[in-house]
Amino acid sequence: SLPNAERYALQYADGRQTYITESNRRDIKNGSILRLTTSPDQEAEQLYVGIQSKNVDVKTDSLKKLASLSQDITFAQEFISRNGLKQIYSIVEEGNDTGEMLAHTLKAFTELMEHDFVSWENLSTVFIKKIVSYVNMNAVDASIQQLSLSILENMVPTSRLLFEVVRKEVTLDRLFTHLQVTNAQLQLKAMALLIALLLSATDAERQDMMDYLREKNIRQFIHKNIIHSSEPLGDEMAHYLYVLQSVSLNLCEHRMKMSMDPYSQEQRDLLQSLRQTAFESESEVPAGTFSTERRRSLCAKEFRKLGFLNNSNPAEDLRRAPPGLLALDNMVYFSRNTPSAYSRFILENSSREDKHECPFARSSIQLTLILCEILHIGEPCSETAQAFYPMFFGQDHFFEELFCICIQLVNKTWKEMRATQEDFDKVMQVVREQITRTLNLRPTSLELFKTRVNALNYSEILKLRQTERLHQEETLAVPVLELREKLKPELLELIRQQRLLHLCEGTLFRKISSRRRQDKLWYCRLSPNHKVLHYGDVEEGVQSPPIESLTEKIPVADMKMLLVGKECPHTKEKSSGKQNKDVLELAFSIVHDVEEYCLNFVAPTRYEFCLWTDGLNVLLGKEMTSERTQTDLDVLLSMELKLRLLDLENISIPDDPPPIPKPPSNLNFCYDFSQAEQ
């Protein structure tokens, strides 16, 4: 009914203040507060003129408003269609504006590019060099440097040409300088750009970059100033450290996949050095003393003592890839860096009975393969993982040093198990378990790892296995199985209540776009009366926002169904080539009102995924289907059964109930209380 109605639009008053359009009008919830405002095209026109104003105040206010409104896709489309990005380019390229005005310009540019309407490859060389100059200059405001680093980080993965420009212009030295600042956000953006460069580089470039960073002692710096800083480590930084660890360990992949070449003199020399280090005194006999045949026989005997299966041609043992030449590298590193431990291992096993000797070479090859599997060497980086090992950053030559500790563990475990050659696979299985269990404790240094892994001896592993087995074992007597079935409904109700309580407490979720990890967070929780789901965007560091601050809501009555994994719309959006397994396992969506409208989630952990999908199924009146439900039910049933059967310890429970005796001929044995009272 307004005159010139096309000049006006409705906009959410709270949260991100998105414009209401034909495409999103059905998403409006009861209770949403809307306001009448200028339409996006009018606003875009005004700001387009405003950012060209000669009046500094008008220009600053226009850029500030532009930075805020550019988050909205409708406005962004209108502004870009007016060639608004060209104006932003010229503001940056001219370089006349600094401080607050420049910060708003860069913020607006970042938000507009986020919508993917314009390719990053369209940027001019002048613009890129200007952004690079803000990163490279010292006397620039930290907020401008953060935004500039963020722009470059987005630019790097989009094309090879842009990667080369950024790599050439922003040196690793400069990034290292940014990492050393006390401003946590600037440090985070510098790390993000470093990781983007590493992931976009070729193998040879990545090797060069990692070598340079090793010279700069970046590991020690990260270990001391980031991992062990007074500030807690954020999720983003934890992810970047995981990627840095993964990229660094994957440098071993080339050697791991390369079989030994028996005709390579260099590789044969490495193999011979193992024999000479172990049997130095015996090898010092002058060459002329023995015939060639006798010398060959002596070498074969020594290689057999070293634990090679094919002692006449030990190179054959190293033809298997993986672990390929990585196993040889590890053995040579162990023999050169800890010669006394190496000699002790070889000589100790040479003096044992034939069947009881621990084969060094065979164990080393298998151990290298186990370590590669545990540390995921050769596997691509996950988009979401944050599981890095703090001790990795506290040690140069981490993989080799870890091998040196673990190969001595193999010998120790072999002796504890009194193993023979037939037990080789069993011993290596126990060693894998010792390493995995110790790594799960996340030791902060290799010394601590060594102490803990050696304390976890074979008898401790047996105790742990037995305890776990007892937890898993169930009594299979028929009466006990009947009791289990009788207890199930009560315990399932208990699990349902726990799931709903967890939904009432709420969870912090992270938004993940198809292009990169977002540092945007949102929170979702169920109302105490279990009738409404409240959700909304929150800032980093907010742990448990009050329910009133979550502006968006979905009535439980409007929820139609729950989708998980590949069925979710936000996993279908990603191209199949880039489909990420981690995200697929943690994704779920609520379909509400009409089927086209979904609220999409990516759970932070598998545990949260199980609790949320169970809770939502309870609200929908469906069965809880997650693996966590079965685990919880088993634990509760096991505890309840043990408590109820405490009095029956060491009493065998019959499969059939005892027969019920016949009723007595008379009931005169009943006691009459009424007479006793008189």
Helices and strands, with pairings:
Layout: E1 8-12, E2 34-38, H1 40-50, H2 56-69, H3 73-81, H4 84-94, H5 99-114, H6 125-136, H7 142-155, H8 160-169, H9 172-179, H10 184-200, H11 203-215, H12 218-227, H13 235-249, H14 253-256, H15 265-278, H16 280-283, H17 292-305, H18 324-337, H19 339-350, H20 360-374, H21 398-416, H22 424-440, H23 446-455, H24 458-472, H25 478-505, E3 507-512, E4 517-526, E5 532-538, E6 552-555, E7 559-564, H26 569-572, H27 581-586, E8 587-592, E9 598-602, H28 606-619, H29 627-644, H30 673-677
Helix pairs in contact: 1-2, 1-3, 2-5, 4-5, 4-6, 5-7, 6-7, 7-10, 9-10, 10-13, 15-18, 18-19, 18-20, 18-21, 20-21, 20-22, 21-22, 21-23, 25-28, 25-29
What features would you describe in this structure?
The radius of gyration is 34 Å and the shape is flat. Helix 15 (265-278) crosses helix 18, helix 18 (324-337) packs across helix 19 (339-350) and helix 21 packs across helix 22. The protein has helices at residues 40-50, 56-69, 73-81, 84-94, 99-114, 125-136, 142-155, 160-169, 172-179, 184-200, 203-215, 218-227, 235-249, 253-256, 265-278, 280-283, 292-305, 324-337, 339-350, 360-374, 398-416, 424-440, 446-455, 458-472, 478-505, 569-572, 581-586, 606-619, 627-644, 673-677, and strands spanning 8-12, 34-38, 507-512, 517-526, 532-538, 552-555, 559-564, 587-592, 598-602. The termini are far apart. The chain has 678 residues and is an alpha+beta fold. It folds into three domains: 5-200, Leucine-rich Repeat Variant; 257-281 and 292-470, no CATH class; 488-631, Roll (PH-domain like). It contains 30 helices and nine strands. It has a four-stranded antiparallel β-sheet with strand order 3-4-5-6. It has a three-stranded antiparallel β-sheet with strand order 7-8-9. Strands 1-2 form a two-stranded antiparallel ribbon.
